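Work Package 4 report. The design task specified in the project plan requires that, given a folded chain encoded as structure tokens, an amino acid be chosen for each position. We show below one input record used in the internal validation round.
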């Protein structure tokens, strides 16, 4: 059974980018999602371009909550959720933010993103999702990228952190999936990897992974947030090396094999 594993937040810190490139070398991940506005992206651009030539998919991690530079629109996640669901966000600034981040991505890498998702899943929120789909259909007229869906797999028995997963659905997951289907935009077949970033050690994170792998189906996307060392000034900075060390281990390969999962 083929699944994909995507590492998010590329460029937020060099330890994230370098750790994830190492995981791709080890064939433990299949995609990375890039915060194009980050000042750290350009320094690893050539390594990312090389990895893409070897099969890594490179996507745009659309961001409206991390303050890089002076973006047209940026606010804390809770405020963004409230404003978007009340449809009070300035649509023109959403558009400007997306166009700016997309242009920066293409200027740095000299190719269009293979896929698009959102930092903290903001791409599926009301107002934002309509702008995103409209711009994707306009900008990628020749060959559409796939876009991340946060809809759960069909089998959700014993789903870890079930409340947070279902909350993502309430915040837009099922509606966004319908929009993608209506516009003939490809997406992943189920989404896993959601948890509270509170696994204190490798064994605890592995226990979550085993549950996710047991729920995966053909084409499921599993999200991760690794780094090769702790990242300072980051709410999940201590969790990142725990994820990295497990994903880089032989134990992870054994767990994939026992679960009949292959990364594509």
């Amino acid at each position: 059974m083929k699944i994909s594993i995507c590492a998010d937040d590329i460029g937020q810190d060099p330890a994230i980018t370098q750790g994830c490139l190492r995981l791709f070398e080890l064939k433990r991940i299949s995609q990375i999602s890039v915060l194009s506005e980050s000042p750290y992206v350009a320094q690893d651009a050539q390594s990312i371009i090389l990895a893409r030539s070897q099969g890594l998919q490179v996507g745009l991690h659309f961001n409206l909550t991390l303050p890089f530079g002076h973006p047209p629109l940026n606010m804390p996640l809770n405020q963004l959720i409230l404003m978007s669901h009340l449809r009070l966000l300035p649509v023109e600034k959403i558009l400007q933010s997306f166009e700016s981040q997309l242009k920066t991505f293409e200027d740095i890498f000299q190719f269009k993103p293979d896929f698009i998702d959102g930092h903290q899943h903001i791409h599926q929120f009301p107002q934002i999702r309509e702008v995103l789909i409209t711009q994707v259909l306009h900008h990628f007229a020749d060959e559409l990228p796939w876009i991340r869906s946060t809809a759960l797999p069909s089998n959700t028995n014993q789903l870890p952190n079930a409340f947070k997963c279902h909350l993502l659905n309430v915040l837009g997951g099922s509606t966004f999936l319908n929009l993608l289907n209506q516009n003939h935009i490809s997406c992943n077949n189920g989404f896993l990897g959601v948890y509270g970033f509170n696994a204190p050690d490798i064994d605890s994170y592995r226990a979550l992974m085993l549950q996710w792998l047991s729920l995966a189906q053909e084409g499921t996307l599993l999200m991760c947030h690794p780094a090769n060392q702790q990242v300072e000034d980051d709410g999940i900075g201590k969790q990142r090396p725990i994820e990295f060390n497990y994903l880089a281990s032989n134990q992870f390969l054994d767990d994939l094999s026992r679960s009949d999962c292959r990364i594509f």
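The chain has a mean pLDDT of 95. Validation will be extended to a larger panel in the next phase.
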